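Students often ask why inverse folding is considered easier than folding. One informal answer: many sequences map to the same fold, so there is more than one right answer. In these notes we will look at a single instance of the problem. The structure comes first.
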């Protein structure tokens, strides 16, 4: 696929599904004053290319912890995270950084926009770093996320919802192999949340990426192909 195409041009015939993500027996505890608390107690999860999945579960059940581990932002005590067949838990720091740059895009609850860059530069930032900046695609994202009139502003000049839209644009501009999102619509009104979901699912269909999204919303979860629930440190079997 060329990255010089808009999303409609980029739609490719359905490819055979390939396993993009396999999480096996993943364990993670946190130290607390009362001793270690096991949050993930042997999580198993698979996601194929072109597949979308909602990760649900009660507050404190470990959803963000799992996403952080998959995204290479924290390390597990035991278990495997295979991304495109490579074990992310055994990569060097440099290998993990390359994986984050070239394969993954992450939308977190905290937007992590770069304060010294305008919205325009923030949206393009990760795509430029990965050598995948595509002006036509970026323009389409800017239009669909209604960022046109905010492009020259800095993050501190934006509302929470506007920052969230810019962070979503930055993640999608990369056209990642694996899109991870932790409550990405938490600061958005219902119409904008729906627009994000439609956009993310368009990206999944057009590029065959995998999409794993943490949400508390049954309504949004129902828009994704699969729904799984984290409970007592493991994924409930559907
Ligand atoms: N750095 C940390 N140190 C100690 N405990 C932590 C740390 N981070 C998370 N926890 C604990 O681990 C558990 C899981 O947290 P996590 O943020 O993964 O849950 P969550 O399912 O994403 O919750 P929510 O839906 O409220 O965002 C919680 O009990 C939390 O208090």
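Output (designed amino acids):
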């Amino acid at each position: 696929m060329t990255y010089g195409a808009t999303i409609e041009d980029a739609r490719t015939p359905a490819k055979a599904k390939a396993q993009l993500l396999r999480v096996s027996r993943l364990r993670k505890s946190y130290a607390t004053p009362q001793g270690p608390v096991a949050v993930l107690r042997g999580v198993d999860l698979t996601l194929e290319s072109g597949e979308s999945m909602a990760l649900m579960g009660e507050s404190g059940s470990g959803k963000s912890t799992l996403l952080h581990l998959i995204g290479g932002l924290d390390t597990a005590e035991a278990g495997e995270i295979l991304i495109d067949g490579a074990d992310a838990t055994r990569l060097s720091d440099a290998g993990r950084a390359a994986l984050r740059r070239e394969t993954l895009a992450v939308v977190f609850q905290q937007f992590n926009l770069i304060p010294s860059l305008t919205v325009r530069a923030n949206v393009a930032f990760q795509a430029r770093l990965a050598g995948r900046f595509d002006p036509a695609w970026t323009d389409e994202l800017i239009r669909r996320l209604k960022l046109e009139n905010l492009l020259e502003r800095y993050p501190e000049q934006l509302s929470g919802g506007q920052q969230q839209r810019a962070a979503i644009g930055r993640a999608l501009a990369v056209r990642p192999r694996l899109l991870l999102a932790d409550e990405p619509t938490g600061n958005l009104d219902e119409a904008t949340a729906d627009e994000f979901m439609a956009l993310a699912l368009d990206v999944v269909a057009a590029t065959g990426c995998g999409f794993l999204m943490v949400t508390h919303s049954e309504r949004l979860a129902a828009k994704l192909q699969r729904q799984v629930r984290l409970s007592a440190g493991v994924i409930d079997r559907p």
